[in-house]
TrEMBL record:
The lineage of its organism: Bacteria, Pseudomonadati, Pseudomonadota, Alphaproteobacteria, Acetobacterales. Keywords: Phosphoprotein. InterPro entries: Bact_response_regulator, CheY-like_superfamily, Sig_transdc_resp-reg_receiver. This is CheY-like chemotaxis protein. The keyword Phosphoprotein applies. Pfam families: Response_reg. GO terms for biological process: phosphorelay signal transduction system. PROSITE patterns: RESPONSE_REGULATORY. It comes from Endobacter medicaginis. The modification 4-aspartylphosphate is found at residue 52. Residues 3-119 form the Response regulatory domain. The keyword Cell membrane does not apply.
């Protein structure tokens, strides 16, 4: 089963995304910040990470950088989708870190299309 990790400190956003993904048939794991998200990557080995940019402890850019470092060291490369508001310009300065960048607020059907393009159906 395809596993997706949703990392967002806004619980409502994380829950809405997780419920939509679960309804579509994906297995979903959530984390409230980048550090716990990185721990979940190691523990759960997801096929895709969806992360917010602004979070406490470790932001989405730092999480994506840590995942890129793991891939450079031989770990499996995991596509990362960034959900962001005002930080799009910062994220676009490092396009190699993200498979896609989606603006908040987002349309769920667009997020689902991106996920399908990246990992296929559940």
């Amino acid at each position: 089963m395809t596993t997706i990790l949703v990392v967002d400190d806004e619980y409502l956003v994380a829950d809405v995304v997780a419920f939509a993904l679960e309804d579509a048939g994906y297995l979903v794991v959530t984390a409230p910040n980048g550090r716990l998200g990185l721990e979940a990557v190691i523990r759960e080995r997801p096929d895709l990470v969806i992360t917010d940019y602004m979070m406490p402890v470790m932001n989405g850019m730092e999480l994506a950088s840590a995942l890129e470092e793991r891939a450079a060291a031989g770990a499996r490369r995991i596509p990362v989708v960034l959900m962001t508001g005002a930080q799009r310009a910062l994220a676009q300065q490092s396009p190699e870190l993200f498979a896609a960048i989606i603006d908040k607020p987002f349309v769920m059907s667009e997020l689902m299309r991106i996920i399908g393009d990246l990992v296929g159906p559940p």
